Amino acid sequence: MSLDLNPYKTLVFDCDGVVLNSNKVKTQAFYDATLSFGHDKAQALVDYHVQNGGVSRYLKFEYFIEEILKQTVTRELLNELLVKFAMEVKAGLMQSDIAEGLIELRKQTPQAKWLIVSGGDQNELREVFSARGLFDLFDGGIFGSPDDKDIILKRELENHNIKNPALFLGDSKYDFLASNRAKLDFVFLTKWSEFGSWKTFFTSKKVVACSNINELTNGNGGCFEY
Hints:
single chain, alpha/beta, Rossmann fold, 7 strands, 46% helix
């Protein structure tokens, strides 16, 4: 099917699995950061992470402490886990593949403001995007945790940084739900997604699915509606 991007005043992008091929980097980092507590507990966090793609690392580590370790969350333990995780992730983000077609899509949508709205750490994202020459593509800003996507979308809509009609490009169930709550149109990108049951989930939801950003720049003939 063909998706006309010309009417959109705003394009909102998730980062991991959309702009960068970094989902596996994050998954491995969750495992490594918690392996000292045992393989089973680290794997339980990985399973939770994959099932809740797009959710902030802060919430995932709080879940790990409370629900997997059965402990009270303390600032010391939470910070220890976050630091371990961040060190590995930043190195991985610097080496992750950048989505093909991203520059071409920017050229094809001069009318649209671009934003990143991610579950990744906001300062980390801004550093990585600057270092990799991507920062200036996102003239609407690069936003991430500790604020979650619902908070960011609500705030940026209220301050008119996101103007409708707006389109969210995501690769997770949470991306879809957050965009739906914010009343944004949604495109699901499949190639790097870790959302294994997406075909079942999107059945009858009238969501456009494409393999990757490159398909949006080539007449999106490979896109289809669920």
